[in-house]
Task: inverse folding
């Protein structure tokens, strides 16, 4: 199978290469793709060095699969061109997510929606994936009336330039003497501003969580009220989530449901100071949940805390899992049965 990674030199593109190798995805020809300024740079995949190529050359080589992490503009222009030569595109940008003709997929939740005619598939926002993986099975059981979520998002969600800003500040460099991605210092600070502000007072990042929740769960009646903030953490998003259900529940049943949900790990023993932290999520693909407790202010409410590596399950791993699902469904060329074992663990 010919596999292209578009945006291969970025944080997510680099991790996509790693995840493809870790999960033994069947790649017979690897095509690393990036912008013109990166053409000719070398990357290493599966122990072999490759020269980065531009989009035109990659399209001419007619890949079977392309994993995109190049931003909305390039995705809008290039994804249809890749699809036109028979390629399946899994796109990590926000451009296609609300297109009614495109599927927005978390394989463990709604992988069944993928069909043979899907050429461009959207990968959800990292914060949405992390929130919905533990919430989807609870919604099926109890029905969700309302979600109030506050996010504490790593600088890695903004890319290499944001990481460089934090590192410069931690070296003691004065504000204004280094290239800054954020409008304020991020070290020793929290910035309640991710993406641009909209007329309703919410940011685009916050409204992504609203709209993507409705689309993935297939239920526009769920109320979602998010606040997203950037924190000085390198790797791993955290979320404080308050949920109001339509029906009553037992906390023990919620824990049991989570323990039986692929991709969710329960870390919840406050008496022993055990709770999820971004430090422990790095390099892992699960969403970690804990601090589970009833909300005494509403009849059927809970609070919990969840953490996930935003570059892996929030981006690269979810994209590769979508590709595995396409393979298992027979929508990609490859060895007979390839990907079946991995996708079976997703419950799809």
Result:
């Amino acid at each position: 199978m010919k596999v292209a990674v578009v945006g291969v030199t970025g944080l997510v593109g680099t991790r996509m290469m790693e995840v493809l190798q870790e999960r033994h995805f069947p790649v017979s020809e690897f095509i690393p793709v990036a912008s013109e300024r990166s053409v000719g740079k070398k990357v290493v995949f599966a122990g072999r060095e490759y020269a980065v190529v531009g989009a035109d050359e990659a399209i001419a080589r007619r890949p079977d699969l392309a994993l995109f992490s190049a931003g909305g503009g390039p995705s809008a222009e290039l994804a249809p061109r890749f699809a036109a030569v028979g390629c399946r595109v899994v796109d990590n940008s926000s451009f296609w997510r609300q297109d009614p003709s495109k599927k927005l997929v978390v394989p463990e939740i709604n992988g069944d929606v993928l069909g043979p005619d899907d050429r461009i598939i959207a990968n959800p926002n990292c914060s949405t994936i992390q929130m919905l993986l533990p919430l989807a099975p609870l919604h099926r059981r109890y029905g969700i009336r309302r979600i109030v979520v506050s996010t504490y998002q790593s600088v890695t969600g903004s890319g290499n330039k944001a990481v460089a800003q934090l590192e410069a500040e931690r070296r003691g460099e004065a504000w204004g003497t280094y290239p800054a991605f954020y409008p304020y210092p991020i070290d020793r600070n929290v910035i309640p501003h991710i993406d641009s502000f909209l007329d309703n007072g919410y940011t685009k990042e916050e409204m992504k969580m609203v709209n993507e929740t409705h689309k993935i769960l297939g239920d526009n009646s769920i109320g979602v009220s998010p606040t997203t903030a950037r924190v000085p953490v390198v790797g791993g998003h955290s979320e404080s989530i308050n949920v109001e259900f339509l029906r009553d529940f037992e906390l023990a049943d919620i824990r049991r449901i989570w323990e039986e949900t692929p991709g969710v790990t329960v870390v919840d023993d406050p008496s022993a100071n055990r709770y999820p932290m971004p430090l422990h999520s790095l390099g892992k693909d699960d969403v970690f949940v804990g601090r589970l407790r009833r909300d005494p202010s509403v009849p059927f409410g809970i609070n919990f805390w969840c953490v996930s590596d935003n570059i892996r399950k929030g981006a690269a791993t979810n994209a590769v899992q979508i590709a595995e699902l396409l393979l298992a469904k027979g929508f990609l060329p490859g060895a007979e049965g390839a990907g079946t074992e991995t996708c079976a663990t997703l419950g799809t």
Summary: The domain at 127-310 is CATH 3.30.360.10 (Dihydrodipicolinate Reductase; domain 2). The two ends are 22 Å apart (CA to CA). Residues 126-142 form the longest helix (17 residues). Confidence is low (pLDDT under 50) at residues 337-348.
